[in-house]
Every structure is written in structure tokens, then in C-alpha cells.
């Protein structure tokens, strides 16, 4: 099962698992509560989500914890990426992207404004075993916001070697090159033999 309630992640993870002979149910579909993410690393939070899903469902689970690390902001927002979008009315990524850009402007961060998306997948099994798989993609932060595809901070991130943001890219192309694609590929090689 996919230990996430984020519809964007569910969509991406299902696309990445297509053709593997795995039926992936999300935490929402199974009615599972979202655990509190209390760790300060992607690995720690992925573990919390995966183990919580296994304990609640009895099924093997994979959980992704991911985020954007911006060099000029000393790696922020990092593990708190989703928190930067929190408002009293839910997540607002447009406001979060604006905040990132304003901080970069305030400190006169030099161009290119380098960053990386990071993804850690934890595969947890009912016997208590956990395995971890990591993926990264380097790039830069751009402004203004570009594209409606993807989710989160995708519209301000251009991966190295490309001119489009993740928000402008065809989802199939992003699925080939993203941080989540890389961690999922490592998972498939390590656990599914693909």
C-alpha cells in the first residue's frame, strides 16, 4: 500500500509502479489516519508513515518523504517543505513559493539559485523489516511561477539539463527524471527485482 494521503504523490507513485504487477492502495482508500511526522530527516518521517500504515493495515507499505532543499537558504525548506505551505485554511503552495522567492531576493542570493528535490522511500513489511531508498534531482529555482502540472513547489524548480519547470513538464517526462522516480527505481530494483 502507499502510505500517503497526498493525491499528487499517489498519482506519481502509481504511475511509477505501473507495469510491476503491484496493486497499490492509498492510505485514504484504506481509511488510515495520517501519523504525525516528528522526525527531522526524510528517512525518519518516511519510516513513521510506512510503519504506521503497516501497523494499521497489516499490509506491506511504502512511504515517501520528500522535499526541496535550496542551497542559498541553507537547505530550507527541506524536511519542512509541506509545512511551509500550511495556512489556517489548508496548504497554499503559491504562497509558499512566493515566500521562497522573497527570501532569496531579501538575501540577494546569486544566480543560479541552486536547489535539489530529495525523496526517501521506506518499504516496511509486516515482519518489522524496513528498507530505505533515496533519490535526488539537482536544479535551480526560477521566477515567476511556471506551469500547472505537478504539485507542491514544482512550478519554480527547473531540473538540470532542462528549460521547463516540473510544473510545465509532461507528467510522463517528470516520472522518468524526478527525485521520486529515482528513489522508486531503487525500490523496484531492491524489492521487486525490476
Q: Describe the biggest sheet?
A: 4 strands, antiparallel
- Class by alpha and beta content: alpha+beta
Number of H- or I-type helical stretches? 5
- From the spread of the alpha carbons, the general shape counts as globular
Order of helices and strands: HHEEEHEEEHH
Mean pLDDT: 91
Secondary structure: number of strands: 6
Task: Report the helical percentage.
Answer: 25-40%
Query: Which regions contain 5 or more consecutive residues with pLDDT less than 50?
Result: none
- Spatial strand arrangement across the major sheet: 1-4-5-6
Q: N-to-C terminal Cα separation, in Å? A: 18 Å
Can you describe what's shown?
The chain is α+β, with helices and mostly antiparallel strands and 194 residues long. The protein contains 5 helices and 6 strands; from the N terminus they run H-H-E-E-E-H-E-E-E-H-H. A 4-stranded antiparallel beta sheet has the order 1-4-5-6. The chain has a two-stranded antiparallel ribbon with strand order 2-3. Helix 1 (7-17) crosses helix 5 and helix 4 packs across helix 5. The longest helix has 16 residues, at 42-57. The two termini are 18 Å apart. The model has no long low-confidence stretch (mean pLDDT 91).
Spell out the key features of this protein.
21% strand, single chain, 5 helices, 194 residues, two-stranded antiparallel ribbon, alpha+beta, four-stranded antiparallel sheet
Amino acid at each position: 500500500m502507499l502510505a500517503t494521503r497526498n493525491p499528487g504523490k499517489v498519482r506519481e507513485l502509481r504511475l511509477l509502479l505501473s507495469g510491476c504487477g503491484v496493486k497499490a492502495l492509498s492510505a485514504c482508500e484504506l481509511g488510515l489516519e495520517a501519523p504525525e511526522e516528528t522526525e527531522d530527516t526524510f528517512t525518519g518521517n518516511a519510516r513513521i508513515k510506512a510503519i504506521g500504515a503497516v501497523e494499521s493495515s497489516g499490509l506491506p507499505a511504502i512511504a515517501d518523504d520528500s522535499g526541496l532543499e535550496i542551497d542559498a537558504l541553507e537547505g530550507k525548506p527541506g524536511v519542512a517543505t509541506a509545512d511551509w505551505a500550511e495556512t489556517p485554511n489548508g496548504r497554499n503552495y503559491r504562497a509558499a513559493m512566493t515566500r521562497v522567492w522573497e527570501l532569496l531576493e531579501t538575501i540577494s542570493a546569486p544566480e543560479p539559485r541552486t536547489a535539489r528535490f530529495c525523496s526517501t522511500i521506506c518499504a516496511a513489511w509486516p515482519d518489522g523489516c524496513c528498507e530505505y531508498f533515496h533519490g535526488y534531482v539537482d536544479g535551480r529555482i526560477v521566477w515567476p511561477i511556471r506551469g500547472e502540472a505537478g504539485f507542491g513547489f514544482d512550478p519554480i524548480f527547473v531540473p538540470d539539463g532542462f528549460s521547463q519547470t516540473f510544473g510545465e513538464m509532461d507528467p510522463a517526462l517528470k516520472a522518468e527524471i524526478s527525485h521520486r522516480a529515482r528513489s522508486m527505481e531503487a525500490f523496484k530494483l531492491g524489492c521487486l527485482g525490476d
